[in-house]
Design a protein that fits this description.
The protein has about 240 residues and is an alpha/beta fold. The protein has 7 helices and 7 strands, in the order E-H-E-H-E-H-E-H-E-H-E-H-H-E.
């Protein structure tokens, strides 16, 4: 898809991957609806991006998500691209998972993206197609002690996305997944999990991991996913073979 002039919703746009994605898409000529909970941060970003639109939304709240999509549609008249990026991690061994925290994580990492998809799909169908990109995690490709809650939900998001891709193919709506590696954001301390203790340079070297990625790298992968229509995009090629057997 050529994104010039397209309307894109970016959730989690107030920082990190979401902010970098909004900036990159705007630079490529798209008009970005900036979605997150922090009004102040969104307004600061919006001041930098021509024709952007701020919609303060808690992506754990189904009603707010539905209202957000309505506001974006009213403002721009159409929605061409949805980037489901908002999310949060949670580190805990199986026996110590707090079920209430897990439910809250489910609302943000799985249910929120699903509701957003359900709201934009009829709009995209009406306008002849679109693109939906859901941001999973490299943890969905492997089994890391202490990461069951987070990785299981990111795996669930993969299942929803690839099934939606098959269902929506005839409607010219492409659905894709992007798998980030460890990314240098305010979210990064949750990206590997309790088994790694901390995402320090020392930890990375000791575990023979590649250097961590800046959010701009992931943003470029998200742009690639939209432009190519690929089902799955990995932050790095070696991740394709990372799945535990």
């Amino acid at each position: 898809m050529d994104i010039k002039g397209k309307i894109v919703i970016v959730t989690g746009a107030s920082s990190g991957i979401g902010e970098a994605t909004a900036k990159l898409f705007a630079k490529q000529g798209a008009k970005a609806a900036l979605v997150a909970r922090s009004k102040k941060k969104l307004e600061k970003l919006s001041a930098e991006l021509s024709e952007s639109f701020v919609v303060v939304t808690d992506m754990r709240d189904e009603k707010q998500i539905k209202e957000m999509v309505k506001k974006v549609l009213k403002h721009y008249g159409r929605i061409d691209i949805l980037i489901n990026n908002a999310g949060r991690g949670y580190d805990a061994d199986i026996e110590n998972i707090d079920t209430e925290k897990f439910k809250e994580l489910f609302q943000l990492d799985v249910l929120g993206p699903l509701v957003a998809m359900q709201e934009v799909i009829p709009i995209m169908k009406k306008h002849g197609g679109g693109s939906i990109i859901n941001i999973s995690s490299g943890t969905a490709l492997i089994n890391i002690p202490g990461m069951a809650a987070y990785s299981s939900l990111k795996k669930a998001l993969v299942g929803i996305s690839l099934t939606a891709r098959a269902e929506l193919k005839d409607n010219k709506i492409t659905v894709g997944i992007v798998y980030p590696y460890i990314t240098i954001t305010n979210f990064d301390k949750n990206m590997i999990g309790g088994s790694v203790e901390s995402l320090t340079e020392e930890a990375r070297v000791n575990r023979n991991l590649p250097e961590f990625d800046p959010p701009e790298h992931v943003a470029r992968k998200i742009l690639e996913a939209v432009k190519t229509g690929a089902a799955e995009i990995y932050a790095h090629d070696w991740m394709k073979n990372a799945s535990d057997k």
